Amino acid sequence: MQDVSTEKKEFTPNIVAFCCNWCSYAGADLAGSSRLTYPANVKIIRVPCSCRVNPMFVLKAFQRGADGVILCGCHPGDCHYVTGNYYTRRRMALLYSFLNYMGIEKERTRVEWVSAAEGARFASVMNDFVKQVTELGENKRLTDLRVKEGE
Amino acid sequence: MQRIGVFICWCGSNIAATVDVEKVAEVIKSEPGVVYAANYQYMCSENGQQLVKQAIKEHNLTGIVIGACSPRMHEATFRKAAEAAGLNPYMVEVANIREHCSWIHKDMEEATEKAVILVRTAIAKVKLNAPLMAGESPVVKRALVIGGGIAGIQAALDIADAGFEVDIVEKNATIGGRMAQIDKTFPTLDCSACILTPKMVDCAQHEKIDILSYSEVEDVKGFVGNFNVKIRRKARFVDETKCTGCKICMEKCPSKKGLNEFNMNLNTRPAIYIPFAQAIPNVAVIDPTQCIKMKTGKCGICQKFCGVGAIDYEQKDTFIERQYGAIVVATGFKPISVDNFNEYGYNDNKDVITSLELERLMNAAGPTNGVLLRPSDGEHPKVITFIQCVGSRDTSGCGKPYCSKICCMYTAKHAMLIREKYPDTEVHVFYIDVRTPGKNYDEFFRRAVEQYGVDYIKGMVGKVYNENGKLMVQGSNLIDNEQITIESDLVVLAAAIEPEPSVRKIATLLTASIDTNNFLTESHAKLRPVESPTAGVYLAGVCQGPKDIPETVSQASACAAKVIGLLVKDKLKTNPCVATPDETMCNGCSQCANVCPYGAITYVEKEFRLGGGKTEIRRVASVNPAVCQGCGACTVTCPSGAMDLKGFSSKQIMSEVEAICKM
Ligand SMILES: Cc1cc2nc3c(=O)[nH]c(=O)nc-3n(C[C@H](O)[C@H](O)[C@H](O)COP(=O)(O)OP(=O)(O)OC[C@H]3O[C@@H](n4cnc5c(N)ncnc54)[C@H](O)[C@@H]3O)c2cc1C
Ligand code: SF4
Ligand code: SF4
Fold this sequence. Notes:
CATH architecture of chain A: 3-Layer(aba) Sandwich
Mean pLDDT of chain A: 87
Structural class of chain A: alpha/beta
Radius of gyration of chain B: 32 Å
Strand content of chain B: 25-35%
Largest interface: A-B, 47 and 49 residues
Bound molecules: flavin-adenine dinucleotide, iron/sulfur cluster
Shape of chain A: globular
CATH class of the largest domain in chain B: Alpha Beta
Low-confidence stretches of chain B: none
Number of domains of chain B: 5
CATH topology of the largest domain in chain B: FAD/NAD(P)-binding domain
Oligomer: heterodimer
Helix content of chain A: 25-40%
Order of helices and strands of chain A: EHEHEHEH
Strand order of the largest sheet of chain B: 10-7-6-18-29
Distance between the termini of chain A: 31 Å
Strand content of chain A: 15-25%
Structural class of chain B: alpha/beta
Radius of gyration of chain A: 16 Å
Helix content of chain B: 25-40%
Mean pLDDT of chain B: 95
CATH architecture of the largest domain in chain B: 3-Layer(bba) Sandwich
């Protein structure tokens, strides 16, 4: 292995994407089957609905060193569970502005609506988000508060 | 001790070309808890599944991770394989290393590294999986059809013919829908009533079909296989079981000024009436806004003349509750109101009419007994101008953005029928585009032009105004590039169609989604076109999108096939990934019930031990696993962190987050 400290590697942010099973996860699948590329540093966690994402999950990600967190759900009005994404919208608006206040720039957090038919949109959203987070650089704010392994 | 097995799929070269599958399996082998890791060309194949089954048995695996295509593709396959080998099917996780990795990345090193992380994440999750048991819920072998138009009629007949009970709930006094109002039907020009009314009679006579006319759905509870529906039977003031349909009341009723809705308000009807001669059920109904007895207490003539004592002025709405296994929505459409389109002068000129009004004016059972006469003076119109796309494909906000699909065809039909019956009539049609795809459809349209000499003008109409009793239709002719004015006796507007407005209420009751134009949305536009996203709810006819009769009937039969497929089952497997509260933490605050879109959460009083022999009775949340759809809204809302979701628990998701962030 090369010595990472001497060879200044280009910064690639680590990004956690929560995708609802019915729309966005399927949209991500469509991006895949359409062979649309986006950076490998986006990793997707499947949740039944965007409203399943507890603010704790987002905090945990930043605490563990994620550089950006994005939540994707069905378009408003199209939620598989009727109203789930409305809760997400309100809840995350609050959480993100709180995080911004805590020093985690609002550019590191996002909520996007991507339908199962919008593979191209999924890829372009991810490309755009990665670019945006890359420009901000590494997130160090919450890692300081990191809970020690095994705690 | 956890014993995890990991299986990495090549998917031929789909994964293996960009992900070094052998390396992934190698690296993963040394993950804590992993006792077995393999890679294989096609995991989903018979042999691949065999590999999984064997490994589960040989290595006593407690959980497995498959690194392969999207779980949306084969999660079910691998769960079945696990179950066959004696492992609980919910001890399986799929790491999506195809759609989310090999197919989107080009660099092998990068893709391999990501695949390892994705597999690690799935391992982190599966370690926290718990065995789950899919519950079973019984299927009520009865279907509900909402709306008794041709869509509802066809669906009901097909389901009933398969041996299942069906109820049709129709808001009007008779079934039949719009098709009953139409005179002749394209593309064959057979008489609408002649093909519709036998089907209506079949419904009435079918021992498995119960027609609940003049009724509306009030409330829906429950879920697929087990809907509990409350139906309002509106007071018709006539005893349905006694009325013989003799119509003596209609003859004798002195109040004859009610507008005849069936004839598009072109004439009047008595306060007590049967909508049309072939109505099913053939039972009278009293319009309380017109009935003298109800308004003033005097009259009562119909009661006096009714030979069977069917009239009951005191009748009240009643409610019935029934259980159904499946629901078909077939609420149809209405033409949009053309009041907003001032340019066409519909409100100012009696001789500007809509296409549906024309259907009634041409119908032998209509207000003019089928003789085409102008509404203003009862004269034969000599020049008739049709205007297509009134409010369709209109992005100005005044009309509808979509194409109503049927207007090109029915306008060609109208033009042809008029030229056939009254060859001395001059017929003009203003159109934007003529859209007539379909079997024998374009031929039909061409016949109107070539054989019947209908004058088609490509262009829009700017204004219709009255000049000395003549309707002046001013428009552009885009082909000749000129402005023209046609002096007409009758102007017919092909108004856009929109979903019947009550569909909004129905959609809310059923938690079925509707689009921005109020059409019900199907589960998948191509692959599940007759199913609503709500399990057990199916869509037939124009309520799902504009369509003509042949398409409506096909969709209705498709719905019936789906319903029959559901009703033949005795039991349904339920999704075990449902919410469960930790009762010791729940404080009964009701927050979760407020956000649950399915009403799955209720509260129960429970006794808790406090220690020292003391007990306490507290109110705690209780989730009905058969109703919960597993969205997780309640879990995040719960302020005490008592609510969790099986299969997607907070701990599981947290561990996934950690696995991704561990660099
Ligand atoms: C002017 C005109 C001419 C046409 N000509 C032709 C033609 O020649 N050939 C052709 O193929 N097609 C033609 N069509 C199209 C045809 O009318 C439709 O395709 C067909 O009627 C659709 O049937 P449906 O059952 O979906 O809806 P509908 O006929 O609208 O029936 C819906 C039924 O549901 C009931 N309902 C609505 N809401 C509720 C509720 N909340 N609860 C209970 N019941 C409810 C309604 O009362 C109605 O009985 C024409 C349409 C128009 C407007
Ligand atoms: S009681 Fe009402 S419905 Fe009966 S005849 Fe009189 S006005 Fe007509
Ligand atoms: S998971 Fe969703 S459906 Fe189930 S109880 Fe909670 S809110 Fe209701």
